[in-house]
Amino acid sequence: MPFGNTHNKYKMNYKCDEEYPDLSKHNNHMAKVLTKELYEQLRGKETPSGFTLDDCIQTGVDNPGHPYIMTVGCVAGDEESYTVFGGLFDPVIRDRHGGYKPTDKHKTDLNHENLKGGDDLDPNYVLSSRVRTGRSIKGYTLPPHCSRGERRAVENLSITALNSLTGEFKGKYYPLKNMTDAEQQQLIDDHFLFDKPVSPLLLASGMARDWPDARGIWHNDNKTFLVWVNEEDHLRVISMQKGGNMKEVFRRFCVGLQKIEEIFKKAGHPFSWNEHLGYILTCPSNLGTGLRGGVHVKLPHLSKHAKFEEILTRLRLQKRGTGGQRWRCRKRRPRPLCPHHLWGVFGGGGESRRYLDRPLQTLRKLEVGC
Predict the structure, then answer these.
(1) For residue 224, what are the CA distances in angstroms to 36, 41, 351?
(2) Where is the secretion signal located (predicted)?
(3) Any idea which fold 112-369 has?
(4) Are 225 and 231 in contact (CB under 8 A)?
(5) Start-to-end Cα distance in the chain
(6) What is the DSSP letter of 2?
(7) Is the peptide bond before 336 cis (omega within 30 degrees of 0)?
(8) Disulfide engineering: 118 pairs with which of 5, 310, 347, 352, CB 3.0-4.6 Å?
């Protein structure tokens, strides 16, 4: 939970040895980086909004992680966190994003016309496709640190912006706090609803404070473009549809996201961005484009195979069960900060075959052979 400035100064009455957390059994990027010397160097600092080093690392301290799964272990409370606590975040970002250096520049390309292929993923196996990202509104602290008033201001700005969309993006906002039973059930049936986080990583970071106050879901009338407001980030933008036409999903994603960004910018509230980190988000793992892509596939036979997990790992895919033999698969933790990350995931030129079609073709062949 975020501490105020006075509390942080009070902690300075204690020596570094007395305040330094026990990270001896931890397996996360924060614990790997945060030496006692670095803790001493940064513990007295705070951002202009009052976010401290202990606020950044608390989620990683409370959640040691899995012996074989390296988690991040730290969050940002505002845009300034990444510079004030650069001694922590820079090496975490380097490790998490494949050697990305403090001097590197981020390049974002959201021109959907550059995507070749991806419009013919096998419909016999691919049930639905989706692309998502997060965005933060400049001038407001991030969910681990924001006040109730800030969170409500972000919601009000988002409602105004999203409700001004027209054409294929015309839609409606549903606040979690005032949602009717019928609306809630419909959103559950549509697989749109997000509930209070139960992950210890999110809870320890302070993201779920005051739930469900100022949280909600907006979606277009066609139910193919939706935005979560005030979950892990200010905005979580998602494009999705049934079938395997990822190219169409990505087109809608790019066009809709650009429209939203233009509306916020005209209102004097651009998204948080800089040339080094790209789009600023709560978790260092999502910096850059913040882009994730995935498909919902049906694998009734292969999913029962003893080496199913190993197969997915070799294909650099992650899975999430959705019931029965249906699985949601996505590329295993891509590197959003890579200058050409967008086409590293969806493929520029012929790359979509390598990053999308080929892993799915392999799954299909294995499914048939089971």
Answers:
(1) 49, 48, 25
(2) none
(3) Creatine Kinase; Chain A, domain 2 (3.30.590)
(4) no
(5) 49
(6) P
(7) no
(8) 352
pLDDT range class, residue 367, cuts 50, 70, 90: low
Q: Report whether the peptide linkage leading into residue 270 is cis, meaning its omega lies within 30 degrees of zero.
A: no
Token couple for 297: 């596939």
Residues marked as binding for ATP? Answer: 128-132, 191, 236, 292-296, 320-325
Whole-model pTM? Answer: 0.85
Hey, what are 79's tokens? Answer: 């845009």
- Whether residue 251 is predicted with pLDDT greater than 50 in this model: the reply is yes
Q: What are the pLDDT digits (tens) for 121-142?
A: 777 777 888 899 999 999 999 9
**Which CATH architecture group holds 5-96?**
Orthogonal Bundle (1.10)
Q: Extract the annotated binding site.
A: 128-132, 191, 236, 292-296, 320-325
Q: Which tokens is 129 given?
A: 């496709």
The residue count for the chain = 370
- What tens digit of pLDDT does each residue of 258-271 get? 999 999 999 999 99
CA distance 38 to 40: 5
Residue spans per domain, the chain: 5-96, 112-369
DSSP letter assigned to residue 71: B
* Structural tokens at position 184: 């809630």
Asked if 336 contacts 291 with a C-beta cutoff of 8 angstroms, the reply is yes
